[in-house]
Amino acid sequence: MSVGSALSGFFGLVWRILEGIRRVLHLILLLVIFGFVLAALHTSIPVVPHSAALVIAPEGELVEQLASDPVRRAFGQASGGPAPETLLKDVTDAIQAAKSDSRIKLIVLDVGNLSPSGLSKLQEIGAALRDFRAGGKRVVAAADSMDQTQYYLASQAGEVYLDPLGLVYVDGFSYYRMFLKDAIDKLGVDVNVFRAGTFKSYTDQFSRSDMAPSEREESSVWLDALWNAYNQDVTRARSLPAGALNEYIAEQPAALAAVNGDAAKLALQRGLVTALKSRRQLGDELKGLVGEDQDTHSFNSIAMNQYLTTVRSKHVLKPKPDSRVGIVVASGEILDGHQPPGTIGGESTADLLRQARYDNTVKAVVLRVDSPGGSMFASEQILREVQSLRKAGKPVVVSMSTYAASGGYYISAAANQIFASPTTLTGSIGVFSVIPTFQHTLEKLGVKVDGIGTTPLAGDMRLDRALTPATRQILQSSVDHAYAEFLQRVGEGRKKSVEDVDKIAQGRVWAGVDAQRIGLVDHLGGLKDASDAAAKLAELGSDYDIDYIESDMSLREELLMQLRSEALQFGQMVGLLAPRSEWERALDPVLEQARSIARLNDPRGLYAYCWCSEPRGLRSTLAGH
């Protein structure tokens, strides 16, 4: 046998061994996946104990609609991507169902994993908890420590328990953002800004090094309105004297030193919590109320998602009623085309409204808006469908969530009635266009751009050339026209003159309580109030059914959502999925703003957008408007 034949035989044997190992590993992987599929398909409906506590433990941010489609969401979370989200509707539905469920003796509210969320959403949960307590049942909140968002929700419970080593950190609201002018100058970038609206200050980040007096003026108004609402809600829920929360913040350094740095003791002294107890101590006490789970040796309980499965399973096979109110959720940025859930697509959201128009069982529509705006063209597409619904004789009522600003207000303007929370951020009626050019940056690198065109405008929109006066005039005229159209749409919808709308527009942001005063909003209230109003306009009476109109989920998507939690647990168990570091989380606001800018896709480059995220302390994303 030759040396070549021996080597060939040896490597052939090695290859066959490796190929065999690969096939075995592939088979094992398929078996694991198959096991997950079987587990998902054979998931049984949970059983509610005859005496139990409903545990509500929201994770991540409270949202009106889960971001992106289920497939992307599952893979994104598996790779350490988007933070978890909790549907506001899930929380309020669970509380409402538990109120009349004799098996549920109390609610245990665990706020430890709640991320910064809109104040208006927290208020809706607070209202649901108060309604639950009005039925004679207890609500108990427990946490190791609480930040400002978590404490707001906990304060709405009848009893608030804090770990003896915990703290309640409340510091008020703030509104800061980055200004990029100096950095842009150093880079040699020309940022060409065209806007309509004195208060339309988003573009200031490119042209200024500090906050403009006009932005400081308007921001202080809505910031104070939101902080006053937070104060009033917390002090009323905890039966504290007026100003107690501001005193707690202002006196915290000295007061904390007086108790030797014991933050939990200070929170107890100031009445922010009911008592200091660990989770285990509280759990042992609850055993006496609802009994003990023999498997876990904890108190009898059922988690919110499991409880919702049992509640909603009863309604799956129910036929749709002949008359109902349809709810269309418009949540996220407004972009052109078809967009996944968590983003408003000009075509996809218009399709849902059109679906409601042609469904004879839908007699009225509630448009639930939670959006800072975006593409003006996409906003116009949605507005036209709202107008078509009304022409078809179907009332449309808008329910504003955390914000319905700029394009979010644009799509709301034609509704029969508009409801907002007192803390909704709305208005911001204005338009802008931003076009950066990089000719100076290229010149620093020794790159020159030269050539010819067949017309005076040919080549003017190249990003490596400066905009000519003619192009600037065209762009500014387009923005001015878009703003005039915006004013007209609002005037027609709100039955105001264009001149009157312009006085309260100019890009200015208003809190819901002020928006009602100036006529941008009809009523203050939540989704239930808006649904009742829609039913009344459609003459459905007080006993009506509601139905969420949304894109159908495929079997593949449903299966993947079922598999997600098992796959995540398996990946973390074997070390394939590492948790995101604090540094990665700290960069989220900056990265999100960059992604927001990159996503804007209006065909004319015209945007009705408000970078008016809620202030620091409730939301983690900060930007201008």
Can you characterise this structure?
By secondary structure, the protein is of the alpha/beta class. The protein folds into two domains: 52-173 and 231-313, 2-enoyl-CoA Hydratase, Chain A, domain 1, CATH 3.90.226; 174-230 and 319-551 and 587-625, 2-enoyl-CoA Hydratase, Chain A, domain 1, CATH 3.90.226. The chain is 46% helix and 16% strand. The strands form six sheets. Strands 10, 13, 15, 16, 17, 19, 20 and 21 form an eight-stranded mixed β-sheet that branches. Strands 8-6-5-4-1-9 form a six-stranded parallel β-sheet, sandwiched between helices. Strands 2-3 form a two-stranded parallel ribbon. Helix 2 (70-78) links the parallel strand 2 (61-63) and strand 3 (85-87). Helix 2 (70-78) packs parallel to helix 22 (555-573) and helix 18 crosses helix 19. The termini are far apart.
